[in-house]
Specification:
Elements (H helix, E strand, L loop, with lengths): L2 E6 L3 E7 L5 E8 L5 H19 L4 E6 L2 E2 L6 E2 L11 H9 L3 E5 H12 L7 E7 L3 E7 L2 E2 L37 H4 L1 H12 L5 H9 L3 H25 L3 E5 L8 H9 L11 E4 L6 H7 L8
Parallel strand pairs: 1-4, 4-7, 8-11, 11-12
Antiparallel strand pairs: 1-2, 2-3, 5-6, 8-9, 9-10
Amino acid sequence: MLRFGIDIGGTKIEIIALDADGRQLLRRRVATAANDYAATLQRIAALVHSAERELNQTGTVGVGTPGALSLATGLIKNSNSLSLNGKPLKDDLERLLEREVRIMNDANCFALSEATDGAGAGAANVFGVILGTGVGGGLVISGRPVVGVNAIAGEWGHNPLPLAPEEDLPLPRCNCGRFGCVEAYLSGPAFAQDHERHTGQKLQPAEIVAAVEAGDAAAMSSLERYERRLARALAIVINIVDPDVIVLGGGMSNVERLYSEVPRHWLPHVFSDRVDTRLVKHRHGDSSGVRGAAWLWNDVAA
């Protein structure tokens, strides 16, 4: 069974074709049609039709999108690609492609990819985390993504960061409009803003990490604050979900120190005498979201 995955991003729309064993047969991307819903639909349809002509076969279609499909209305909600909000994306794509289309939040697709044949393969309970321009999460149990009755399962980024000490104050405003959200501390831009607030230096996240590696004490302090915050935030996930594996993705996941330091810091905050949850780096990198969209059809026999 040929599976197509589509990933709708802020700057690009990507397609991948996977065979039944997960081998990549094709991968293409085009620029996102900013603030143009109709053009977005047409570009997705064109990608699928072109891929089918090239491979000379049809396939299932799964779509990873920012936001989620409302279970109440069937319309997209909570998307930072604003042109999608309030639109019947699933219905419109099914009309254009003349087949059923499965749609899921892009962080859920990331988690599904890593749970299927990535860094969390073989684990029963996988929590996938995106630490990028925003902060997202997805939960996969026994190979199946958990959506939830409100279609917001895994949205840990819009909970308050717990146990705020003095160094976390004042509470930063989140893009969602609330204050003190996990995303407002742990996204890449939030890391850079925190460093600037403490040092006056306006640096990109990668530049701060490079400064740490060069022995800069102020940069090290910023990264240590980030590690402590990430540990506290993930401890809440462990206390509620108790995952076998937490897989990190997004730009901040490339900071290698996180995988040794964060588990050390989360120990006092987890309600257990030991913590066997593993914190690991993604296997598929920026391919995970689009691969996970294709794997939305895992339950279909090859």
